[in-house]
Amino acid sequence: MCYGGQRPPSRDDITTSAQSTATVDQNMAAVENLRRRLEESEERLERARAREAELGRLLEAMKKFVSVMEILENYLNRRYREQLSRLYS
Protein backbone atom coordinates (compact mmCIF):
# COMPACT_ATOMS: atom_id res chain seq x y z
CA MET A 1 0.00 0.00 0.00
CA CYS A 2 1.08 3.54 -0.63
CA TYR A 3 0.74 5.98 2.27
CA GLY A 4 2.10 9.04 0.48
CA GLY A 5 3.99 11.21 2.91
CA GLN A 6 2.52 9.37 5.90
CA ARG A 7 4.02 6.45 7.71
CA PRO A 8 2.20 3.10 7.73
CA PRO A 9 -0.07 2.56 10.77
CA SER A 10 1.58 0.82 13.71
CA ARG A 11 0.06 -1.76 16.01
CA ASP A 12 -0.50 1.00 18.60
CA ASP A 13 -2.37 3.06 16.00
CA ILE A 14 -4.63 0.11 15.25
CA THR A 15 -5.26 -0.54 18.99
CA THR A 16 -5.98 3.17 19.54
CA SER A 17 -8.36 3.08 16.58
CA ALA A 18 -10.20 0.07 18.06
CA GLN A 19 -10.40 1.84 21.42
CA SER A 20 -11.69 4.96 19.69
CA THR A 21 -14.37 2.90 17.98
CA ALA A 22 -15.35 1.38 21.33
CA THR A 23 -15.47 4.87 22.87
CA VAL A 24 -17.60 6.14 20.00
CA ASP A 25 -19.93 3.14 20.44
CA GLN A 26 -20.19 3.85 24.17
CA ASN A 27 -20.86 7.52 23.48
CA MET A 28 -23.55 6.65 20.94
CA ALA A 29 -25.17 4.27 23.44
CA ALA A 30 -25.05 6.99 26.11
CA VAL A 31 -26.59 9.51 23.72
CA GLU A 32 -29.39 7.08 22.81
CA ASN A 33 -29.98 6.38 26.49
CA LEU A 34 -30.19 10.11 27.23
CA ARG A 35 -32.56 10.65 24.29
CA ARG A 36 -34.81 7.86 25.52
CA ARG A 37 -34.79 9.26 29.06
CA LEU A 38 -35.53 12.75 27.73
CA GLU A 39 -38.48 11.41 25.73
CA GLU A 40 -39.80 9.61 28.82
CA SER A 41 -39.40 12.78 30.89
CA GLU A 42 -41.24 14.83 28.28
CA GLU A 43 -44.07 12.27 28.25
CA ARG A 44 -44.31 12.41 32.06
CA LEU A 45 -44.29 16.20 31.92
CA GLU A 46 -47.10 16.18 29.35
CA ARG A 47 -49.16 13.84 31.54
CA ALA A 48 -48.49 16.02 34.60
CA ARG A 49 -49.59 19.13 32.72
CA ALA A 50 -52.77 17.40 31.55
CA ARG A 51 -53.47 16.30 35.13
CA GLU A 52 -52.81 19.83 36.37
CA ALA A 53 -55.28 21.22 33.82
CA GLU A 54 -57.91 18.66 34.86
CA LEU A 55 -57.40 19.48 38.54
CA GLY A 56 -57.70 23.17 37.71
CA ARG A 57 -61.04 22.53 35.99
CA LEU A 58 -62.24 20.51 38.97
CA LEU A 59 -61.15 23.26 41.34
CA GLU A 60 -63.09 25.88 39.37
CA ALA A 61 -66.19 23.66 39.39
CA MET A 62 -65.86 23.19 43.16
CA LYS A 63 -65.47 26.94 43.68
CA LYS A 64 -68.70 27.53 41.73
CA PHE A 65 -70.46 24.86 43.78
CA VAL A 66 -69.28 26.39 47.06
CA SER A 67 -70.38 29.82 45.88
CA VAL A 68 -73.88 28.52 45.07
CA MET A 69 -74.04 26.75 48.44
CA GLU A 70 -73.04 29.98 50.25
CA ILE A 71 -75.76 31.89 48.39
CA LEU A 72 -78.28 29.21 49.30
CA GLU A 73 -77.13 29.19 52.93
CA ASN A 74 -77.47 32.97 53.18
CA TYR A 75 -80.93 32.85 51.63
CA LEU A 76 -82.10 30.11 53.98
CA ASN A 77 -80.66 31.91 57.04
CA ARG A 78 -82.43 35.12 56.03
CA ARG A 79 -85.73 33.28 55.51
CA TYR A 80 -85.33 31.54 58.87
CA ARG A 81 -84.74 34.88 60.65
CA GLU A 82 -87.73 36.41 58.85
CA GLN A 83 -89.97 33.55 59.95
CA LEU A 84 -88.70 33.82 63.53
CA SER A 85 -89.37 37.54 63.57
CA ARG A 86 -92.93 36.96 62.26
CA LEU A 87 -93.49 34.25 64.82
CA TYR A 88 -92.44 36.44 67.75
CA SER A 89 -94.00 39.68 66.46
From TrEMBL:
Chain intervals for the UniProt region annotation (Disordered): 1-24
Segments of skewed composition (Polar residues): 15-24
Coiled coil: 24-58
Recorded superkingdom: Eukaryota
Keywords assigned by UniProt, alphabetized: Coiled coil
Protein name: Protein SKIP34
Lineage: Eukaryota, Viridiplantae, Streptophyta, Embryophyta, Tracheophyta
